[in-house]
């Protein structure tokens, strides 16, 4: 039951409610209604996310979904491309009006990769909006395990291999558990500010604690 309440695919979950609130803020930043097509690059996103946000048929908006593999799309204003978030050299500087990314930058294994992704986002987008879970929030959002990110590496691997936790079924091998633990590198607000030094901060709060951090850069309306 607790996992259902935290599952973003569940329309009545806490996470979906938070995402909807964040998205309302993002939408308030968009220059909608000005008659020009807004080109959005969603790094690591899915069409179903935008569908849940009720944004699949917005006029004068085209959304490109960039992932490691392409996926079928159902809406004419969407396209899916294969790419690497750390190297988007196929796009020139400022190619997109907005680069959007939701809970992706923490899945890149290393700080160096996170730096590369941030640099590419700032390069190919005229504006950006990048969200990530807060490292210091007590409940780790992938394993749904209190203070999981603060545990010793070996203990995190042991738990990952032996239990179904959060989004993850238990790993079959120790090697798979190690890879899963190494993949997720949660970021602090201070680190996000290093990655996006020209960005403003949007904090998502739960019980007075910062649940996630978004760095964004848009022209002042």
Automatic annotation (TrEMBL):
InterPro entries: Methyltransf_11, SAM-dependent_MTases_sf
Domain of life, per lineage: Bacteria
Entries under Pfam families matching the protein: Methyltransf_11
GO biological process: methylation
Coiled coil segments of this chain: none
Signal peptide per UniProt: none
Keyword line: Methyltransferase, Transferase
Ranges of residues in domain Methyltransferase type: 69-126
Keyword Transferase listed: yes
Molecular function in Gene Ontology: S-adenosylmethionine-dependent methyltransferase activity
Record-given protein name: Class I SAM-dependent methyltransferase
Native species: Deminuibacter soli
Taxonomic lineage: Bacteria, Pseudomonadati, Bacteroidota, Chitinophagia, Chitinophagales
């Amino acid at each position: 039951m607790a996992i259902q309440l935290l599952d973003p695919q569940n329309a009545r979950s806490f996470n979906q409610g938070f995402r909807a609130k964040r998205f309302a803020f993002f939408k308030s930043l968009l220059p909608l209604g000005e008659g020009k097509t807004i080109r959005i690059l969603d790094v690591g996103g899915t069409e179903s996310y935008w569908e849940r946000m009720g944004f699949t048929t917005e006029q004068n908006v085209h959304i490109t979904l960039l992932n490691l593999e392409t996926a079928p799309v159902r809406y004419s204003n969407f396209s899916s491309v294969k790419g690497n978030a750390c190297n988007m050299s196929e796009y020139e500087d400022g190619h997109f009006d907005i680069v959007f990314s939701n809970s992706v930058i923490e899945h890149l294994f290393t700080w160096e990769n996170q730096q590369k992704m941030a640099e590419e986002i700032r390069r190919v987008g005229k504006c950006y909006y990048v969200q990530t879970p807060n490292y210091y929030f007590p409940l780790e959002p992938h394993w749904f395990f209190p203070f999981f990110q603060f545990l010793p590496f070996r203990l995190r691997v042991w738990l990952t291999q032996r239990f179904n936790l959060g989004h993850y079924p238990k790993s079959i091998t120790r090697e798979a558990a190690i890879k899963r633990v190494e993949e997720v590198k949660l970021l602090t607000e201070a680190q996000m500010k290093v990655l996006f030094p020209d960005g403003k901060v949007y904090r998502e709060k739960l019980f007075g604690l910062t649940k996630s951090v978004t760095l964004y850069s848009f022209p002042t309306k």
